[in-house]
Amino acid sequence: MPHGVKLYMNVLPARLHRFLIASAIGLVVAIIGALSTEQPPSAAIVRGDFPAFYTMATLAHQGEGAKLYDLETQREVQNAIWPSLQGSVLPIAYPAFLARWVEPLALLSATNARIVWTVVMFLCVVGACALVTRVSSGLRGLTWETIVIALLFAPLFLGVLGGQIVGLSVLLYSALLYLDRKRDRWSEVALGIVAGLWMYKPHFSCAVGAVLLLQRRWCAIGTWVGASSSLWALGASVAGTQWLSPWYSFVRTFAQIDLVTNAPQMTGVVPFLYVVWGWITHGGGAQTGVWEVAALLSLLMVPCILGILSRKGLSRSDAALVPCVGPLLVLFAPAVNFYDLALGALPLLLSVHPNRRVDLILVGGVLVVSQIVIFLKDIGIAAVCFAFAVSLTYLFMRARARE
After folding, report:
1. Beta carbons of 103 and 63 less than 8 angstroms apart
2. Which pLDDT score, from 0 to 100, does residue 313 have?
């Protein structure tokens, strides 16, 4: 080694290292076992959003994109593929351009497509963790350990295994964290493109756009707008140039129906207020009105809080606002499910250092509590995901203050 050059390599305690090795083996066995066992569509491993993604792929492949937001067409396609659905349907609530992204799945059987989709989402998590270790000096050299820790976070693991798109969301968010630190011209171009690609969940992408506006990062804003416009054109190739109108109408109706079913396992202010209103009125009353008001307030909260943080000294020269996006999204976005809690937990890793015992205890505590939250959610204890989201946000803000 040349004189004066030091290589910094983080090392975990031996006991923790052995635990992570055992956990990695257990995770591999669990994943292989889950993917090699055929499951009915009602099972958690395939229910999720995968039937919706496969339906989008099928309609796009058949040239039936104009029927993408016709509920009866969705029902017909899904029940032909999975007769055990017995007339029920898992609606498609994603923008039309996503159909073009997932169209190759239609070349495979539903079973094989589910395996491929799950593997791709796990690879996205691997890529996300690799980026996080490059952002955080405390995690440098601990890539595989970070991957295991991420997969031990119950909402992320079950979201990926359950056919959600959370793996891609985590990858895009990690890419934003990585590119936000570089601040050169090409990184700014890439930052806007990555933010635009997140438009399959528009409230996530728009929150990042608000950050870019607050920081006056015009190059990134330009590529964000360009990427978003390109996605509109891609959606037009699937469902016609007017696809935004039927999509928005369908999503608005679906969101209110989904709130009735899934509010207890969502994380944000909107479902929390919905659940509280249900407690007060014993399940009755003008819950739709509460949803509309809460959705409006939540949409305003993210840019408002980011604006306050910016005025407190987090200027455009600081790499501080983008890490705040994840925790704020899981609290204030109109519709965020339990698996998106990964967006609140991921930024915590940026402040973790293996030589600080309190950091290791914090990470272990978050992982354990995440398992408890999933259990409480599944037995019907409402608002537990929201409480966990609040806790993650508090821990993150406290870590930011310490740093």
Report:
1. no
2. 57
Q: Which residue has better confidence, 382 or 69?
A: 69
Averaged over 283-303, what is the pLDDT? 67
Q: In sequence order, what are the beta bridge partners of 266?
A: 337
Q: How far apart are CA 373 and CA 383, in angstroms?
A: 10
**Cα separation, 318 vs 316, whole angstroms:** 5
CA 222 to each of CA 212, 216, 318, 321, 379: distance values in angstroms, whole numbers, following the listed order: 10, 11, 20, 19, 46
Residues 6+ away with beta carbon under 8 Å from 35: 114, 115, 118, 119
Percent of the chain with pLDDT over 70: 88
CA-atom Rg of the chain in angstroms = 21
Asked if residue 229 has pLDDT above 60, the reply is yes
What burial class does residue 148 get, using C-beta atoms within 10 Å of its C-beta: 0-12 exposed, 13-18 middle, 19+ buried? Answer: buried
3-state SS, 374-390, equals: HHHHHCCCCCHHHHHHH
Sequence-ordered list of residues with C-beta below 8 angstroms from that of 261, at least 6 positions apart, any chain = none
